[in-house]
Amino acid sequence: MTPWEIHAIEVSNCNCAYGCPCQFNALPTYGTCEAAGGFRIDSGYYGDVSLAGLHAAFTVKWPGPIHEGNGEIQIIIDERATPEQRLAVEKIMSGQDTEDMATIFWVINAMTSTNHATVFKPISLEADMDARIGRIVVEDVFELEAEPIKNPVTGAEHRARIDIPGGFEFAIAEMASGTTSTKGIVELTNNEGTHAHICELHLNNSGMLPTNA
User: Fold this and answer.
1) What DSSP assignment string belongs to 76-133?
2) What residues have CB less than 8 Å from 47, skipping those under 6 apart?
3) Contacts of 75 (CB under 8 A, 6+ apart)
4) pLDDT tens-digit readout, 69-124
5) Is the pTM of this model over 0.90?
6) What is the number of domains present in the chain?
7) Residue numbers of the domain that contains 133
């Protein structure tokens, strides 16, 4: 198993209600799961290949709850990546060189039966975790906007976060409202003003690392 590690910031949007039932081992709000997301690797490596500064993204959907499988996914990797970096990021995002159940990437891959060809494109990603603001643009694939949840009466920004000490994606995530429009092979149809989160990813082959690792 090739050792790897990434420290990144992620923006993700799914079609469920704010908070996302998955985070509580509950069924999806509308019975299905559709999501898009991306992350910026601030530091990281795969073996002796540096991954710092790269962006990556994905679109994924399931016909029912994730644990029932039969999902489809497309991985998008920063076109700036070298051939060695492209292979490294693809292996991490497809759950390879990872212990069973250790990361969100492993889980998604295990529950996916259709893996569309990875594409290499410019990825624009902005993320401010404290402000609950994020934006991802992948040309001809998807656009994602995240903003603070608003009080439906006053319009004031509402702040909530989820703390999962033993999770396989994040330790703490800020909740947001997200909207995604898709143009790519994986079509998302109900991601408007739905759950989004912005979080730090601190992951390696064995799972989630302490945030200060």
Assistant:
1) EEETTS-HHHHHHHHHHHTTTT--TT-SHHHHHHHTEEEEPPPEEE-EEEEEETTTTE
2) 2, 3, 4, 88
3) 56, 57, 58, 90, 93, 94, 118, 119
4) 999 999 999 999 999 999 999 999 999 999 999 999 999 999 999 999 999 999 99
5) yes
6) 1
7) 4-208
Task: Look at residue 180 and tell me if it is in a domain.
Answer: yes
Q: What is residue 2's predicted lDDT score, i.e. its pLDDT? A: 96
Give the pLDDT score at 90. 98
Q: How high is the pLDDT of residue 210?
A: 77
Q: Using one digit for the tens of pLDDT, what is the confidence trace for 136-148?
A: 999 999 999 999 9
Q: CA dist 98 to 29, 103, 109, 144, Å?
A: 30, 8, 11, 28
Residue pair 38/123 in contact (Cβ under 8 Å)? The answer is: yes
With respect to residue 166, please indicate whether it lies within any of the assigned structural domains. yes
Does residue 159 contact residue 144 with C-beta atoms inside 8 Å?
Answer: no
Is residue 213 in a domain? no
In a domain, 91, yes or no: yes
- Please report, for residues 95, 105, 182, 202, the alpha-carbon distance to residue 60 in angstroms, rounded to integers and kept in the order given: 14, 11, 11, 21
- Separation of alpha carbons 76 and 90, rounded Å: 9
